[in-house]
Amino acid sequence: MNLNTIFTNQRTGNHPATSASRTDFQRDFDRIIFSAAFRRLQNKTQVFPLPGSVFVHNRLTHSLEVSSVGRSLGSAVGEFIVKNYQPDLSEDAKNFYHNNLHNVIAAACLCHDVGNPAFGHSGEDAIASYFEKNESDLKQKFSEKEWADLVNFEGNANAIRVLTHQQNGKDEGGTQLTMTTLASIAKYPCEAVAKKKGVIHRKKFGFFQNEKETFLNIANAVNLMQENEEPTIFKRHPFVWLVEAADDICYNIIDMEDAHRLGIVSTSDCENLFLDLIKSENQNTKRVEDKLAILTNANERISYLRAKVINALINKSIELYETNFASILDGNLDKALLDIYKTENKSLQEIESFSIEKIYGHKAVIEIENAGYNVMYELLNHFIPPILKAKSERKSYDKMALKLLPKQFLYEEGSDYQKVLGVIDFVSGMTDNFATDLYRKIKGIEIGMTM
């Protein structure tokens, strides 16, 4: 890929760039911060049930922290590119990598989870399994590619839709971000029928059929390498690796800190795991040990170690990105940066294994995943059968159900696929609390008027 042609300030919706005190990429960051989709992340589960008596991360606080890490990665890599590829760079490119790459990565990190439904990954599973379980009734209503979108529902693909789709009564181009920021969140730049396990850029899929033309425009604007035309497959954009690394750094480490605050993980276990990782990257740990000797509060000790671990992982990610930069530009790197590191660092392997056993398998996490799955499934089951019926065939209860769908999600003149996507937009955009409240009301568990 050509470093001079993989970025652009072109926006979705054909909105021209404007002169302002902020750069176009800073404006991306601000647009996301003020968007409704981003605000709703404050009440979407990251790992642990919300709300609780002890503060833990939700998807909004997680995204803010990922963005902070991403900014650091973008700054360092921008300097690396300008220093090592200066003869090959245009003046615009030098300015971009020096002054704006960090803004792109920060903005992309900020919105990387906006397509994720409530209740964590169980929300995604509920949407996909709804169509799997009702295949005999539904599959014939959709094309092969449309059906693949539905039975493989994916938060990454949904993020592209959330950020670019024009809802009824709203402006063209969705949030109207630059194509550069949008390309930077496309971890799986292929359509659903091209999914393939074991291939990093095809592990999942990156866009729905409804947004395929939009994604092709994004790919064209930033000159993504096309691997295959039918089905459509692109190589990852070079900036994706930084967004992915920032996300991996945060959830690997901060989930552990949350578990400690909740009493799921002991202070000694958490300290030992963090210290081992710090020692594996820094032979001189005297400064860390001296600091710990002063700190007597358990939460403060873990917070300090968490900061040191994240710093170590940022530095390692930058090193690995620079080492593998040629392969990244050629589209040949086949493993995430932290996965590369994991193969050579036993301490990071131990943190992952410990998290899977003690955190992600904890009863509270399993309970919220089960509850969330049922809530999301039943909400889909309330809206999808009525929306797929012809207007003349709808009974009174069908009409009553559809009155609960806000107008921006109703595509009565569209295809069955577009009608169903409208329902998915509504349900996947719900917060944990809103989804639970609506579920309780439509099931008659809770009856009464609330505003």
SSE blueprint:
Layout: H1 24-33, H2 36-39, H3 59-85, H4 91-99, H5 101-110, H6 121-133, H7 135-138, H8 144-151, H9 155-164, H10 179-183, H11 212-221, E1 226-228, E2 233-234, H12 240-261, H13 267-281, H14 286-294, H15 298-323, H16 325-330, H17 337-344, H18 346-359, H19 363-388, H20 396-402, H21 416-428, H22 432-442
Antiparallel strand pairs: 1-2
Describe the structure.
The chain has 451 residues and is mainly α. It has a domain at 118-152 and 362-450: eoxyguanosinetriphosphate triphosphohydrolase domain-like (eoxyguanosinetriphosphate triphosphohydrolase fold, Orthogonal Bundle). Helix content is 59%, strand content 1%. The chain is built from 22 helices and 2 strands. The protein has helices spanning 24-33, 36-39, 59-85, 91-99, 101-110, 121-133, 135-138, 144-151, 155-164, 179-183, 212-221, 240-261, 267-281, 286-294, 298-323, 325-330, 337-344, 346-359, 363-388, 396-402, 416-428, 432-442; strands spanning 226-228, 233-234. It has a two-stranded antiparallel ribbon with strand order 1-2. A hairpin with a 4-residue loop joins strand 1 (226-228) and strand 2. The mean pLDDT is 92. Residues 55-261 form the HD/PDEase domain. Residues 1-21 are annotated as: Disordered. InterPro entries: dGTP_triP_hydro_central_sf, dGTP_triphosphohydrolase_C, dGTPase, dGTPase-like, HD/PDEase_dom, HD_domain, PHydrolase_assoc_dom.
